[in-house]
């Protein structure tokens, strides 16, 4: 190279897991200025290649290391900025070491720009942490031996049960499962197969070692997938040490507060009044089953250690239709099941025989949303005691006596759903539910789950929940402000309903407040403990041109609501014209909103939208010309909200990155 000739620059760049928004800023800058991009074939999303608008792009698929390095050297000598683009992070199964060694032999320097590895993207999509206290603090990233040998003994590594992450091994799934079973993994050990995570055709399959191979075969996944095996998928209630001191302090403060307030002069009088009246907080059987279905998504474990317990499980096995169930029976009864001509073992949806109850509880405590044992309360409590963390984290735990006369809610009565599950199981087997939580016992407002059956979201920190709950059950004066939502309750004697204006003027007269509203309220004005409830009363109408991305719908919606002091968690429905039903980006947005937030979607015909055209505030000649109606967003919002609805946010406009227009309007539905 002559002295006057400019040297080039070579970068090994990690492109991330696939989503173009998950590359680093450094990677984006390098790509933007690149003259040449040599990329790893179909593993790179084309949208990422588009960042290098002026670059010469070369697919390296099928080329040898020497050929690739020779290409980089040629462009380097021409003074070009060369990017060797790898998927994920180039340092993990990126085969860059051999490339670096060749470049070093040429005397060529280079720089490595890290990327987000696909295993990290898996964690985000799985909504988990790979290192959980008391479960595992070790992550093993490896591949299963195939054409490429693996010097480590995978089976020896696996014996300690760390989080195992297998790259480049989807076609060898059965071999991995067989090896793990060989070293003592139970068949129901949790795992996940993650295919092309963050790509548009992403697939994520949860399963166990017993069924993951069949699930993968059904989905046709043999490559481009990570296989993750770990107890973290079922771990709950494991708190990091760095948080433990603060958490303990909060709990102690709560206990101290409750003890100081428990005996008040008003207690006896108001308690007698409560006993004489009903305040309407017990929900109907149909509603209860709907609530239970939303709570117990990870299933319910039923345990039996006696013949009487087995008979109770038989009564339950066909009746629990609102959640997945798994039955655990003492191994001493296994031979009786196998001899039974009625094939009882086949009639159970899922059954496991266990040797040691203490070990079983340690294994399943975090795996299920509820554990119900036909076991004495004393024995059961001693076994579960080491695993208890908090009501926000623990599963619902229930005990049934051997005669099936009582179903006792022991743990996570409200938040975990144990109280309602106790009522449902008692209903099935003809038993008496035993509920001891204060609000249930005296029939007052259950602060931490108030409105849950109607989809209300509760907003407050742990300490505030404790303080407000204490005020309600200890008969202190509590203010209630309700601006929207269902009126399914009567007020206890110590709860006074006020308007927001009255409450702000008189709040010093109260110990706590329950504030039911769809609005975002200035919390700085509230000087006493207050729990906010977000009823599902907002119906959003959307009109849009082709070209709006799915994430833009979400971002603009949240932005518009926030700017107008409306809570996103009060959104019940989103509606638009039926012509947009199959827009692919809107479909993605709809699935996300339904799955993550339970928001319903509605599509209205042109004639339906025309039927409320006299109610719209901002008719559009443009909309009338192209879709045949003077309004899409406002009309959709009004129709979705139903009779006597109020348009509280007229049409608001936004522009997408592509220049496509989008409009939002919000109507408030009136509850009966």
Biggest sheet character: 7 strands, mixed
Give the distance, in angstroms, between the N- and C-terminal Cα atoms. Answer: 83 Å
Beta-strand fraction estimate: 15-25%
Low-confidence stretches: 241-280
CATH topology heading of the largest domain: Rossmann fold
Cα-based radius of gyration, to the nearest Å: 30 Å
Q: From the 3D coordinates, which CATH architecture of the largest domain would you assign? A: 3-Layer(aba) Sandwich
The helix/strand class is: alpha/beta
Number of helical elements: 25
Q: What is the number of strand segments? A: 27
Q: In CATH's first tier, which class of the largest domain applies? A: Alpha Beta
Mean pLDDT: 86
Domains, number = 4
Across the major sheet, the strand order is: 13-12-11-14-15-16-17
Shape: globular
Assembly type of the chains comes to: single chain
Report helical residue fraction: 25-40%
Summarize the structure.
With 672 residues, the protein is α/β, with parallel strands linked by helices.
Task: Describe the protein.
With 672 residues, this protein is an alpha/beta fold. It folds into four domains: 9-116, 3-Layer(aba) Sandwich (Cobalt-precorrin-4 Transmethylase, domain 1), CATH 3.40.1010; 119-234, Tetrapyrrole methylase, C-terminal domain (Methyltransferase, Cobalt-precorrin-4 Transmethylase, Domain 2); 285-442, Rossmann fold (3-Layer(aba) Sandwich); 538-668, 2-Layer Sandwich (Nucleotidyltransferase, domain 5). 34% of the residues lie in helices and 21% in strands. The strands form five sheets. A seven-stranded mixed sheet has the order 13-12-11-14-15-16-17, sandwiched between helices. Helix 3 crosses helix 4, helix 9 packs parallel to helix 19 and helix 21 crosses helix 22. It is globular and about 85 Å long. Mean pLDDT is 86; it is low at 241-280.
């Amino acid at each position: 190279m002559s002295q006057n000739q400019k040297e080039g620059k070579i970068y090994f760049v990690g492109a991330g897991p696939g989503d173009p928004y998950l590359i680093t800023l450094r990677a984006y800058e390098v790509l933007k200025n690149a003259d040449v991009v040599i990329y790893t074939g179909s593993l790179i999303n084309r949208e990422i290649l588009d960042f290098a608008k002026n670059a010469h792009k070369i697919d390296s698929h099928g080329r040898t290391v020497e050929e690739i390095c020779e290409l980089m050297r040629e462009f380097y000598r021409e003074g070009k900025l060369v990017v060797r683009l790898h998927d994920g992070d180039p340092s993990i199964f990126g085969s860059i070491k051999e490339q670096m060694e060749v470049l070093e032999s040429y005397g060529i320097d280079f720089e490595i720009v890290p990327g987000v590895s696909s295993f990290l993207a898996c964690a985000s999509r799985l909504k988990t942490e790979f290192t959980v206290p008391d479960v595992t603090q070790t992550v093993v990233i490896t591949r299963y031996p195939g054409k490429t040998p693996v010097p480590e003994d995978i089976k020896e590594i696996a014996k300690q049960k760390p989080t195992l992450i297998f790259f480049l091994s989807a076609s060898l799934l059965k071999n991995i499962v067989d090896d793990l079973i060989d070293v003592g993994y139970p068949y129901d050990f949790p795992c996940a197969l993650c295919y092309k995570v963050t790509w548009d055709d992403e697939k994520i399959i949860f399963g166990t070692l017993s069924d993951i191979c069949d699930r993968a075969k059904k989905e046709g996944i043999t490559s481009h997938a990570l296989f993750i095996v770990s107890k973290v998928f079922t771990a709950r209630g494991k708190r990091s040490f760095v948080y433990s001191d603060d958490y303990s302090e909060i709990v102690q403060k709560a206990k101290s507060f409750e003890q100081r307030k428990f005996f008040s002069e008003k207690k006896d009088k108001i308690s007698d009044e409560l006993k004489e009246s009903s305040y309407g907080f017990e929900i109907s059987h149909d509603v209860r089953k709907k609530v239970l279905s939303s709570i117990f998504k990870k299933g319910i474990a039923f345990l039996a250690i006696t013949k009487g317990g087995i008979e109770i499980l038989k009564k339950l096995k066909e009746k629990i239709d609102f959640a997945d169930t798994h039955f655990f029976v003492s191994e001493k009864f296994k031979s009786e099941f196998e001899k039974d001509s009625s094939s009882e073992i086949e009639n159970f949806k899922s059954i496991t025989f266990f040797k040691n109850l203490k070990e079983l509880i340690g294994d399943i405590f975090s795996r299920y949303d509820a554990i119900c044992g036909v076991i004495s309360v004393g024995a059961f409590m001693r076994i579960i005691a080491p695993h208890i963390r908090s009501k926000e984290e623990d599963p619902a735990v229930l005990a049934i006596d051997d005669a099936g006369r009582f179903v006792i809610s022991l743990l996570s009565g409200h938040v975990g759903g144990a109280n309602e599950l106790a009522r449902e199981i008692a209903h099935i087997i003809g038993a008496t539910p035993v509920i001891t939580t204060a609000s249930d016992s005296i029939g007052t407002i259950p602060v931490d789950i108030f409105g849950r059956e109607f989809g209300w979201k509760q907003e407050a920190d742990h300490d505030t929940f404790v303080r407000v709950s204490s005020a309600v059950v200890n008969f202190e004066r509590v203010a209630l402000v309700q601006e929207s939502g269902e009126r399914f309750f009567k007020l206890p004697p110590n709860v006074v309903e006020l308007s927001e204006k009255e409450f702000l003027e008189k709040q010093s007269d109260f110990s706590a407040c329950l504030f039911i509203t769809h609005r975002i309220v200035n919390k700085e004005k509230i000087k006493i403990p207050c729990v906010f409830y977000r009823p599902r009363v907002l119906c959003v109408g959307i009109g849009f041109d082709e070209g709006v991305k799915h994430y833009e719908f979400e971002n603009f919606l949240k932005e518009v609501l926030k700017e107008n002091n409306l809570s996103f968690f009060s959104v019940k429905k989103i509606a638009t014209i039926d012509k947009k039903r199959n827009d692919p980006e809107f479909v993605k947005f709809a699935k996300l909103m339904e799955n993550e937030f339970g928001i319903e979607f509605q599509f209205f015909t042109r004639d339906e939208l025309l039927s409320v055209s006299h109610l719209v505030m901002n008719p559009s000649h443009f909309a009338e010309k192209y879709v045949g109606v003077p309004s899409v967003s406002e009309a959709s919002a009004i129709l979705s909200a139903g009779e006597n609805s109020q348009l509280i946010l007229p049409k608001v406009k936004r522009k997408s990155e592509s220049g496509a227009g989008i409009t939002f309007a919000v109507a408030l539905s009136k509850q009966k």
